[in-house]
Each structure stands twice: as structure tokens, then as C-alpha cells.
Hints:
The chain contains 23 helices and no strands. The protein is an all-alpha fold and 446 residues long. Among the domains are: 54-162, Tetratricopeptide repeat domain (Serine Threonine Protein Phosphatase 5, Tetratricopeptide repeat), CATH 1.25.40.10; 268-324, no CATH class.
Amino acid sequence: xxxxxxxxxxxxxxxxxxxxxxxxxxxxxxxxxxxxxxxxxxxxxxxxxxxxxxxxxxxxxxxxxxxxxxxxxxxxxxxxxxxxxxxxxxxxxxxxxxxxxxxxxxxxxxxxxxxxxxxxxxxxxxxxxxxxxxxxxxxxxxxxxxxxxxxxxxxxxxxxxxxxxxxxxxxxxxxxxxxxxxxxxxxxxxxxxxxxxxxxxxxxxxxxxxxxxxxxxxxxxxxxxxxxxxxxxxxxxxxxxxxxxxxxxxxxxxxxxxxxxxxxxxxxxxxxxxxxxxxxxxxxxxxxxxxxxxxxxxxxxxxxxxxxxxxxxxxxxxxxxxxxxxxxxxxxxxxxxxxxxxxxxxxxxxxxxxxxxxxxxxxxxxxxxxxxxxxxxxxxxxxxxxxxxxxxxxxxxxxxxxxxxxxxxxxxxxxxxxxxxxxxxxxxxxxxxxxxxxxxxxxxxx
Length: 446
């Protein structure tokens, strides 16, 4: 009996010790997400050496003190930036989200830390195209702190993607009043573009560029975005200048290289375009670079390369989906334009429409799909929503003209097609080609 008492007492002590040990070291068994070595040209920069040293320092702190929530947040933010720079979204965004969610699960009193972690979570949800979730998370951050500019940025982005454009404008105005900088000016630019004010969009993006620090990834991004605005208005000279300026600051910036590739296509220098798109894709696993290559290979009649690249493209998007990245709209465009499969494209577009029926890009995609299916009346119904902001997107204007033309309003349709070709004379899509042919046919009848 006495022996049993000591046995039970010993077991009790061991149980208490196990509980104490678990509580103290429970996070040690949950390893810090490792940093992946970069590959290719972006692995040889001084920026990478500095980034790696900083991240390894944070990882070391967390191994020594797993409950260091500030270091955990900083590591999450670093992984978010690494996702942007490397394009390794399927790894870094889930890793960052895990770190940041752990901060939110354990921090109850530090309002600054709670606010920053909540904004970071919303930003990741935006990057994963989980827009409704991002809006709700952004509202939670607003309850914690309504004087920080960052929260209005995520609320602006979420409302834009959900098609709540008036709310997005209010959020962008508030953000700009609190912190007029690269991030707020770039949002103002995008909203002006949505509402058809291309000169105003270019003006705001120039302000964003001026507010940026040369060499930072964010500055390179706004330079490329400014270049794309010039490209959309047919100003290829200024577009090229911005892409080259970005490369002058960051020589391996893949989005600038891809921008030059698009200009090469417009100038019918297809060999150079293929070289530039391939170079961009080798630096960054970004689906849009592969998309451009498939489009180019199809144009050149290189079926073997087109099919192989298409296979890689779809495999990459599938990996993104498995990591929580919603890519239904992207798949709709790919299956419509590259796969020539409007029925499959429709399946993905309707899934996206169910989530955000007010977004003009989603409505434009559906209008284009129904146009390809020759259901012009249904296409017109989606175009009514897609054109409600008076967007001057040349592809949208051309599509509206084609639909009107086929519904019997040939004069107005032809005028819209001509307007689209004047907005951007360098369009080279199936729709713009059809539009040119219809306009030329109408003129020849006069």
C-alpha cells in the first residue's frame, strides 16, 4: 500500500512536470518556418544578404524565446515581403499568416502590436484574393486604431476588389490625409483609372514614384505601374522610359523586364519579346509571364512550346490554389483567351462572380465569355455593370462596341470600337482585330 502511494505520488509529480514543460516549450516543438534560399539573379544582390541576415536574426530570437511576439510579427512581415520579391507565394504567405495568427492568438493587451498584426493579416488575405475576409479583418483593425493610415489602405483595396468603389474612394481619401506617400498616391491613381481619368491616374502615380525611395521593391513596382498606364494609352515611349528607370534602380526587376517584353510584341519584335518574357519567368515564378509566353508562342504557331508552357502555368496556379490563393478570375481569362474554352472559362468566372458580383473586371470577363459564346444579350447585361464607372480601358470599350454592333446598333458600336482603337492603337487581341475588321467593313460600305 505504501509502495503504491509513493508510485502514485511519483506519477503525479511527473505529470505536473510534464505540464510545466509543455507550457514552457510548446512553441519549440512548432519550428519557426525556415527561410528559403533565393535562386537566380535575385540571389546575388546585397539586398538579399541584408534581408537574409535580418531574417536569420529574428529566427534565432524566436528559437531562444518562442513567446517573443514582436519578433514573430517582424518575421511574418519579412516573409510577406519575401513573397513579393521571390514570387514564392504558396510557401511564404501561409508561413507569414501562421506567424501573424499566432501573435493575434496570444497578444491581448498591446494595442499597437494587435493593430499591426491585424493589418498584416488583412494584407495577406488581400494577396491571397480572399477579399471578403480581408474586409472583415480590416474592420477589426479599424476598431483597434482608426488613426493609422495602413488600415485605410487595406480597406480601400478590399472595397475595390469587391466592387464597392465609392467606399474605396472614401478610404483612399482618409489614407492620403493621414499619410500622403507612395502607398496612398498609388491607390488614388488606381481609383482614378477605374473612373476613366487616365491623365489623373498618371499624375497620381508620378507622385507615388516621387515619394518612393530608389531601389526599394515598392518604388520599382510603382515605376512599372506608371509604365503600364502609359502603355494602356498607347504612349510606348514613356512606358519604355519607366520600365528602364525601374531596371536602372533594380536591374533584375522581373515586372519591368516583362513590360519591355510587351513593348517588343507591340513593335513586332517577337524574338526579343520571347527572350524578355523567358528572362522574367526565370527570375520570378509569376503566372503572368508564362501567360505572355503562351500567347506569344500561339501567335508564332509554336504549338509544342505553347502547350508545354500552358501546362506549367496551370500547374503553378494549382499550387497557388492549394496554398489558399483564389485564382478563379485568372483561370477564367486563361481558359478563354489561351485555352479557347469559353465553357470552362465560364465555370471559373461564375464562381468569382458569386463572391464579388459588383467588381467591374469580373463583369467584364463574363461579358467577354458570353460574347465568345455569341450570347450578345447576356454579354450586354454584364457590360452594364462593367461600364458603370466610365472606365476608359480600351479592351472594355472595344468589347462594348462589338456587343452593340452585333445587337443591331452598328453606328454606335463602330464609334465605340474606333474610340477604343484611338485610346490604345497598339491593341493586339482577338477582340481588337475583330473590331478593326468590322470598322473597316463599315467604312468600305459608305
